[in-house]
Design a protein that fits this description.
- This protein is mainly alpha-helical.
- Helix content is 66%, strand content 0%.
- The chain contains nine helices and no strands.
- It is elongated.
């Protein structure tokens, strides 16, 4: 489990509750259609009435629960964060970061997920609710994997005071850059390169708090 989970969205915000029973089934159906719509046509086409029709849910229910497309996109991101896979533990920082990088690449190269993330990133640029939810999504995922850096500090692989969040973010940053800016397909080689670069920089103290005394590191 994460040591210090990122703050959750406000409990009474539209679409952020996670009740059971019929309400949960309605939410699942609506979020599935919303994700399909975003992946296929982007945020500008996300119409609550059309989502309700395709999900087989009353339009009044959808408008009452979510209110606007931004809130619906935000709830989709909340659900994605909740459903994301937990981190793995391979015993070394580079192997752990490689697992993280390969998971990112696997997600971003899957046809629907790749288009969905692009749509949600685009939505975050024009909608404050979507932007806040996207920031929360990444905060949750980075914190989930930050434990591998804390473990590496404890093992003496990287200096004390290394910022776990900065290291994990450095793994995915070049992968998202490639997704959004180069247009070429990501590969496992890209994942391995990103993990190796982040690990090397961490060992060199690039993300060490300047106020933390440099302690002895275990030699490989």
């Amino acid at each position: 489990m994460p040591d210090t989970p990122a703050p959750a969205p406000t409990p009474d915000a539209p679409g952020t509750l996670r009740p059971g029973g019929r309400t949960a089934r309605v939410r699942e159906a609506v979020l599935q259609v919303a994700g399909d719509t975003l992946a296929a046509d982007g945020f500008s086409t996300l119409d609550l009435g059309e989502v309700a029709r395709r999900a087989g849910v009353g339009k009044t229910t959808v408008y009452r629960r979510w209110g606007n497309p931004g809130a619906l996109a935000a709830d989709l991101l909340t659900d994605m964060a909740e459903q994301s896979l937990p981190r793995t533990d391979h015993g070394t920082l580079e192997e752990d970061l490689r697992a993280n990088a390969r998971l990112v690449v696997s997600t971003l190269t899957e046809s629907r997920q790749s288009r969905l993330f692009k749509a949600l990133i685009a939505a975050s640029l024009c909608n404050d609710q979507a932007a806040e939810a996207l920031h929360h999504f990444y905060a949750v995922r980075i914190e989930e994997w930050a434990g591998c850096v804390r473990d590496a500090v404890a093992r003496g692989e990287v200096p004390a005071g290394t910022d776990p969040h900065a290291v994990v973010a450095a793994v995915s940053a070049p992968l998202y850059y490639a997704l959004l800016n180069t247009g070429r397909p990501l590969t496992e080689a890209d994942a391995d390169r990103a993990a190796r670069a982040a690990c090397t920089a961490a060992r060199e103290g690039v993300w060490r708090d300047a106020g933390t005394p440099l302690t002895h590191m275990a030699q490989e």
